[in-house]
Amino acid sequence: MQVVVRDNNVDQALRVLKKKMQREGIFREMKARRSYEKPSERRTREKAEAIRRARKLARKQAQREGLLPGKKRAA
Prior knowledge:
Largest sheet: none
């Protein structure tokens, strides 16, 4: 992963790097690798994540189709 530092603005480059790492899921993976995860726990976690993704996708689809109200927006 590579980030360009412009005008010696290291703070901005660091923010960009953190955002990229967050999107890639590197922080989540580092947290998961801190301790051993049993294969049964891993399967359970992955199944729960898949269910969560499916529900989120279905919710977004329903919002697009007008079956559910959209997000509340601050005025």
